[in-house]
Amino acid sequence: MRPNTKTFFLESPTNPTLEIVDIAEVAKIAHAAGATLVVDNVFATPLFQSPFALGADCVVYSATKHIDGQGRCLGGVILGSEKFILECANLDPADRSVDLAVQRLGPAEGS
């Protein structure tokens, strides 16, 4: 880690070695440094792992493998608290068009 580190990014379990990363411990380290933690949760899926409950600020999923698997289409999902998404996208919460970018599904786990 460097003094200017702003974001930690991890995948757990890792693909293809299936190594497990302690998301909660990495979250503590990231947050102590003032950084955010982004977790790629595509391999574990929400059925088996809840990164928000372990301290992640953002969770990403590649939907490409699940939609097609042949590389003919691309897709993905970025999840985070409304505050996190608004800050990352530099959106003004007072701007009503923000509702087009942030769909409110209720509070994320752990927020």
Q: Can you offer a commentary on this structure?
A:
It contains five helices and four strands. The protein has helices spanning 23-32, 45-48, 64-67, 82-88, 98-101, and strands at residues 7-11, 36-40, 58-62, 76-80. The longest helix has 10 residues, at 23-32.
Biggest beta sheet summary: 4 strands, mixed
Mean pLDDT: 81
Low-confidence stretches: 104-111
Q: Beta-strand level of the residues, as a percent range? A: 15-25%
Q: Tell how many strands the DSSP assignment holds.
A: 4
- Helix/strand-derived category reads alpha/beta
What gross morphology would you assign?
Answer: globular
CA radius of gyration = 15 Å
- Name the assembly state: single chain
Topology:
Blueprint: E1 7-11, H1 23-32, E2 36-40, H2 45-48, E3 58-62, H3 64-67, E4 76-80, H4 82-88, H5 98-101
Parallel strand pairs: 1-2, 2-3
Antiparallel strand pairs: 3-4
Keywords:
single chain; 111 residues; alpha/beta; 5 helices; 4 strands; 26% helix; disordered C terminus
Short recap of the structure:
By secondary structure, this protein is of the alpha/beta class. Helices cover 26% and strands 18% of the residues. The protein has a 4-stranded mixed β-sheet with strand order 1-2-3-4.
